[in-house]
Write a structure and sequence with these properties.
With 129 residues, the protein is an all-alpha fold. It has 4 helices and no strands.
């Protein structure tokens, strides 16, 4: 997954209905069902719960997500118009430079010592005919 550059003050994209539900109800229910379970087990359990959840609850969180999405769809263009575009471009440029700098460090290989060959090995190869 490609991470996008983030500028200061940039509106965040809203969470999906599933994540809204998981933060409010799902994770707590999973922890009750699986005490002491790890993150992966809790996530799997939440996924199963979400698949089997009743439609009324799903609609509730989908409605919340739609409201948050509408809010984001209004805030983001306003932010871009009010100087956000320049901040975002600067953040992208800084991220690219950081990536190039990091790649540059990896691209410079360390000098390897040449394997020394002894005269005896060469002479043995010459006379092996």
């Amino acid at each position: 997954m490609v991470k996008l550059a983030k500028a200061e003050g940039q509106p965040k994209r809203p969470m999906s209905a599933y994540f809204l539900w998981m933060n409010e109800e799902g994770r707590a229910n999973a922890k009750k069902e699986l005490p002491g379970a790890g993150v992966a087990d809790i996530s799997k359990n939440c996924g199963e719960q979400w698949k089997n959840i009743d439609e009324a609850t799903k609609k509730k969180y989908e409605k919340k997500q739609a409201e948050l999405k509408k809010k984001y769809d209004v805030e983001m263009p306003l932010w871009l118009e009010n100087g956000g575009k320049e901040l975002l471009d600067a953040a992208k440029k800084a991220k690219k430079e950081k990536k190039m700098k990091k790649a540059g460090k990896k691209a410079t290989p360390k000098k390897k010592k040449k394997a020394e060959t002894s005269d005896e090995e060469i002479s043995e190869d010459e006379y092996s005919d």
